[in-house]
Amino acid sequence: MADQARDPIHDVPAGLPRLREIMRRLRDPDAGCPWDIEQTFASIAPYTIEEAYEVDDAIQRGAWDELEGELGDLLLQVVFHGQMAEEEGLFDFDRVAETVAQKMIFRHPHIFGDESRDKSAAQQTVDWEKIKAAERAAKKETRVLDGVAMGLPALMRAVKLQKRAARVGFDWPQTGEVVDKIAEEAAELVEARDELTQAEVVEEYGDLMFILANLGRHLGVDPEEALRAANAKFTRRFNAIEDALTAQGRSPADSDLAEMDALWDAAKAAEKAAKAAE
């Protein structure tokens, strides 16, 4: 009885049924949690995105001991949305699961249908895109760029938009042409900085970022991954600056740009030496 008192959900099977029952009780208008009751699809969406990034962060860091919990947090978001949808009579969690199950069956005819499994990964990707195009057409998404989610990170969405346009031939044939366009946009940005309004500066900066994303696509580089790696490198080297100053009993605020630049170069050289020794 003591264990049951500590666990008020003891009468529900463990796993997903238990999690769904917990969410149902949290959203109960009479006995639930006031915060959970007040939430809407729109208010929860940012948390859903945040939890997806935290899953990615655990994977990028190889923090496998954290991944289980982060996946649980992400699953909770799906359950939360499913509960709200059920309350509004839109659909329920089982419908969500069945819809994605049917989608996976439909998109893998070489596994669940009559098509041969004897395909390269590249051919499977082509077939996958054809199937998704048919799905978009069924949803009346007839324009080339329809269906590219607005909520994607801007760099990721830029690449997806560019890939869609490239499928119908709207693309630079050569990488060099993209580089030339980058030089042109950079010059326009400098002009905007010196002569135009802040709104025009923002516009020109956005144009430059968009073309840089396109260059990444032409080079086979994922801009999101490349920028993530650059962020990690900056963090690593700046931490080395901070560590060096801390060893002297100082902080970056007690230093100046010239000294910190020298410490940055030292950290960079140490990294290169470590790589060469591997």
From TrEMBL:
Belongs to the nucleoside triphosphate pyrophosphohydrolase family. Gene3D superfamilies: MazG-like (1.10.287.1080). Its EC number is 3.6.1.8. This is Nucleoside triphosphate pyrophosphohydrolase. SUPFAM superfamilies: all-alpha NTP pyrophosphatases. Residues 39-112 form the NTP pyrophosphohydrolase MazG-like domain. GO terms for molecular function: ATP diphosphatase activity. InterPro entries: MazG-like_dom, NTP-PPase_MazG-like_C, NTP-PPase_MazG-like_N, NTP_PyrPHydrolase_MazG, PRib-ATP_PPHydrolase-like. One of its GO terms (biological process) is response to stress.
